[in-house]
Amino acid sequence: MPAGIDLSLRDQAAGIAAGEIDAAELLDTTLTRIAERNPGLNAVVETFPERSREMLAAAPAGPLHGVPVVIKDEWPLPWRAQRFGAAEMLAPSAPGESGPYRALRDAGAVIVGVGNMHELGSGSTGNVSFYGPARNPWDPERCPGGSSSGPAAAVAARMVAGAVGADGVGSIRYPAAYCGLTGLKPTFGRAAMAGHHMAAVTSMIVSGPLCIDAADARLLGSVLCGEELAAGEPRGLRIGVVRDLVSEDVEAPVRASCAKALGLLCAETGGELVEIDLPDLETSALAAVLIANTEGMAGLSPARLNDLDPELSPLGRGLLKFRMLLPAAASVKAAQVRALFRQRVAALFEEVDLIAWPTVPAVAPPLEAPLVELPSGTTTADQANVRGGALANLTGIPAISLPAGFSEGLPIGLQLQAPWGRDELLLDTAEALERANGRAKVEARPPLAQPAGEAAGA
Question: Chain-centre distance of CA 185, in angstroms?
Answer without folding.
Answer: 7
